[in-house]
């Protein structure tokens, strides 16, 4: 029976299958398998989870349960920069929704929160314990405090520059 792998790269699927085949006990190694899959595909979309379920003889619901349980697995395509805008109460009353809107608009994010250039994911988060410097924005591990909507372009520019420098 043909597995539903529409849109997934065949060479990467083959590589994943070869990796899975190296394990006698696939169930015991499911975390390693999922890590490997995420490393080569960049994320774990539902069709890939189904593929892994079939090759490991595990229920797809089990695979999905693992993927959604651990924060290091992503079902959505991720950009290089994870932008978290705090919408916790303290930040919200200081205007963090406006900041969120500015990021979404400036980066033209899709419904999954991925920017048009594929570099950024924009998400909302709840209090990160830095209310005193709110509104707070976190980009990967860097925290920005007292952020205003007009700072958003500069934050984006800084990280785009960082990505460019890493490429060159
Ligand atoms: S509410 Fe945003 S850091 Fe606490």
UniProtKB/TrEMBL annotation:
Pfam families: 2Fe-2S_thioredx
Endoplasmic reticulum found in the keyword field: no
Cofactor(s) recorded in Swiss-Prot or TrEMBL: [2Fe-2S] cluster
Entries under CDD domains matching the protein: TRX_Fd_NuoE
Sorted UniProt keywords: 2Fe-2S, Iron, Iron-sulfur, Metal-binding
Record-linked InterPro entries: NADP_DH_HndA-like, NuoE-like, NuoE_dom, NuoE_N, Thioredoxin-like_sf
UniProt record similarity statement: Belongs to the complex I 24 kDa subunit family.
PANTHER family: NADH-QUINONE OXIDOREDUCTASE, E SUBUNIT (PTHR43342), POTENTIAL NAD-REDUCING HYDROGENASE SUBUNIT (PTHR43342:SF2)
Entry protein name: NADH-quinone oxidoreductase subunit E
């Amino acid at each position: 029976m043909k597995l539903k792998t529409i849109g997934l790269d065949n060479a990467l699927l083959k590589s994943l299958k070869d990796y899975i085949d190296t394990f006698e006990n696939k169930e015991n190694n499911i975390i390693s398998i999922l890590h490997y899959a995420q490393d080569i595909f960049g994320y774990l979309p539902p069709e890939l989870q189904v593929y892994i379920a079939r090759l490991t003889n595990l229920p797809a619901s089990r695979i999905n349960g693992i993927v959604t349980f651990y924060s290091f697995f992503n079902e959505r395509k991720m950009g290089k920069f994870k932008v978290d805008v705090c919408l916790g109460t303290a930040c919200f009353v200081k205007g963090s929704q406006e900041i969120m809107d500015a990021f979404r608009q400036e980066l033209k994010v899709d419904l999954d929160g991925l920017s048009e250039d594929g570099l950024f994911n924009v998400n909302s988060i709840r209090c990160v314990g830095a209310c005193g410097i709110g509104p707070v924005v976190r980009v990967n591990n860097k925290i920005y405090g007292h952020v205003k909507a007009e700072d958003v372009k500069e934050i984006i520019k800084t990280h785009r520059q960082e990505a460019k420098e890493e490429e060159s």
